[in-house]
Amino acid sequence: MGLTVAEKLIAAHLVDGEMQKGQEISIRIDQTLTQDATGTMAYLEFEATGMDRVQTELSVCYVDHNLVQSDFKNADDHRFLQSVARRYGLYFSPPGNGISHQIHLERFGLPGKTLLGSDSHTPTGGGLGMLAIGAGGLDVAMAMAGRPFSLIMPKIYGVRLVGRLRPWVSARDVLLEVLRRISVKGGVGYIMEYFGPGVAELSVTDRATITNFGAELGATTSVFPSDAVTRAFLESQGRADGWQELTADEDAEYDEVMEIDLSTLEPLIACPSSPDNVVPVREVAGRPVHQVLVGSCSNSSLRDLTVVAKALEGRAVHPDVSFEINPGSRQVLENLIDQGNMMPLVQAGARIHQAGCLGCIGMGQAPATGTISLRTFPRNFPGRSGTKNDQVYLCSPEVAVASAITGKITDPRDLGAYPAFTLPDRYLPGDERIEPPLPADEARKIEIVRGPNIAPFPEFDELPDRWEGTVLLKLEDNITTDHIMPAGAKILPLRSNIPAISEYVFSQIDAEFAAKAKQAGNVMIVGGENYGQGSSREHAALAPRYLGVRVKLAKSFARIHKANLINFGIVPLTFAEPADYERITAGGRVVIADLRQAVASGGRELTVEIDGQPIPVLLDVSDRHRQILLAGGLLNWAKKN
Ligand code: MIC
Ligand code: SF4
Q1: Quick one: which of 85, 142, 570, 585 is 20 to 30 A from 31 by CA?
Q2: CATH number for the domain harbouring residue 305
Q3: CA gap 12, 28 in Å, rounded
Q4: Which numbered ligand comes closest to the C-alpha of 356?
Q5: Which atom of ligand 1 is the closest one to the Cα of 38?
Q6: What pLDDT score was predicted for residue 456?
Q7: This prediction's pTM
Q8: Are residues 287 and 248 in the same domain?
């Protein structure tokens, strides 16, 4: 039987296990990326491995999230990261250079390679035909130390594209359509692989928008083939040498297939407050908007900003709208200026920001109370914008600009003719500020700069024989890591300091959670389906663990969060009978009489006693995971081995 693109990528990197769906496999990692908000921890963890230099073909340390320097904390972290990159042989991309995923696509990503990134939107690289996977910082640290990455061999979901997008409809609408069909948990356990004649109609940055936003399906990653379009993109980046063709075999078989006729798509929009709450724009057209943001790793390429600039030529932004541009990278900015497309933005009244994540992670740009904010971002989880009860809609750059002009949600087809534009055959590289790795002898002389914001990594104990605790929270389906460990301008700067950031665990849900957890000492959290969706932030496991959370019981878990729980010694249990969820109340007293023995035994079934009632639960983890849980976490385990 022939292979899909994803299977070929896995086969070429397989170091352990068999490519049988549902079985654990390990793959070699060629490249890694980190961003600052997860990177500081990842490098503290890398240091703990005792390695002298990264072992990958290429590793990049980006600073793109914590750009607001309202005190010393973020600036401290930036200096720490720069010194770490110099010391351990990484590329370093400083603040202002742009978003990790956009820059990686432009300057480093290559078809046929594997990329592990400490950010859930790492699958952006799938647009180039890479196997690009998001993971917790500790997994990325281990990959930098040369260890293979372990994952469950995913099933392959083929998305067959036919036809061609019509004017004013773009890549964002393709994934909104997929989200509309299969929801934020529809991709769990799958790699989404795009194929069919419609693929050739999409540029690499369009493909990257789709694989990036595909993170919202809960998928392991998403991937496109590498073809002539990929080669042309690499040529435009002066990197054609790295091109290789990578396509699925004629007789490749997908576990599921859906077909999308691009020519039938219309402009779509995700309503508050989930990326899968998708409707055609015309259904919500006319609602007044007060903020429109174009940016983020999903939609801030040169193409995206060029369309916006062209649509604004001779037009102005509505006076009630704050229209803001967050460029994806310095390269995007340089080329936009070079092509003469910055002027229409400025003259139309756009607010131009530095390249980076900014409001996408609540670093500024919070919307006004009770108003609608339209964003070309991948996430609109409740409160993520920084405003309580926010009303954030997700849409394409086309819908964004049309709405900014009219002051209300607008189907861009109402603007008339689609603006003509061309993109450069050869981009200005825009990487003046990217520092290449130092040679090993120079690197060894570098001293790592640790400001007071960098707290040492906490020590954790082994799994106890018997565990008794309290159900402190009982939560519904689709709880995000933004609920568990919120971000935003106030909390993000504490990412390098676990004791400090742990004070904010679940603070959106219960402002007293941290105090209650410390008092209870041993805590269990109960959740519904798809628990922990969203970000790769390991702080959503690490900080609760610090507060005494040792067991989580849910109907199902999101992939990265489950891996992070195991990495920090939190036991991820699922209900054997989902109906038992109803039998649990917050405040319940939990006893797991033989926890250690149950984890060590290798058995899948165990019993948890909650308020005296036995509840059958499952522990679906590999043998390696069991060893990690017994040791109290991956770092403890790695030190022993
Ligand atoms: C996000 O979009 O949620 C983030 C912020 O980029 C996260 C990483 C983080 O929490 O630092 C992600 O997507 O993994
Ligand atoms: Fe940054 Fe937003 Fe992309 Fe996360 S989703 S990496 S915060 S731009």
Answers
A1: 570
A2: 3.30.499.10
A3: 9
A4: 2
A5: 11
A6: 85
A7: 0.98
A8: no
